[in-house]
Amino acid sequence: MILSVNGMAVTVEADAPAEFAAARELLRQRAIAIGLLGPADEDEETIEAAIEALLDKEVTTPQPTDAECRRYYERNPAEFESGDLVHARHILFQITPQVNVPQIRARAEETLNTLLAEPDRFTELAAELSNCPSGEQGGNLGQIGRGDMVPEFEAALFKLGPTGILRELVKTRYGFHIVAIDQRLPGKKLPFEMARDRIAERLSASVEEKALRQYVSLLAGRAEIEGVDLAASASPLVQ
Known about the structure:
Oligomer: single chain
Order of helices and strands: EEHHHEHHEHEEEHE
Radius of gyration: 30 Å
Largest sheet: 5 strands, antiparallel
Number of domains: 2
Number of helices: 7
Strand content: 15-25%
Shape: elongated
Distance between the termini: 34 Å
């Protein structure tokens, strides 16, 4: 493919889109035109610095107002909600191809019945019986959020109910689990004041991208480009 910008041949890198190469050449030529870069400069770092200076000089990105940030906050509530959390422990009776599954299940149920009667022995029995490394810490799994565990285990963790040892075994692809829920922490919505900077950054990035596209489009509308369509526009840059 032959690509040129204002009669200047442009090399397209193997993994780079032709549009990107053409836009970069447009910006390089504009930087030369306003004196930010010399025509003979070929050093990549020098060119990149000149293009950055060009964009700082000629592309204005308005900062979002508080009202715009608050509208985004109110229209996208799910983005600012922390997920539910649980603090949990477990004892895993692992299933492998060599084990007798009914026998493993029976042992897990026997242990569960023991713990329902003597919950204070959980740490002891986790260390003795669990096939999970967490057994060395009394079966402690720490703080768990949605999506952290396999679905069948997560379904048991986040099922509405009291804390304490679950009265039924939890079956997963790994085996049978005795599970203790120590604490449930319902999700909370992040206050606007704490979310504002994140929202402003996101809105600014979106506006900056749009302004850059418009700027390149304006340059393309004044240039002779062969080999690619940059959606050239003769309209002024919308600030």
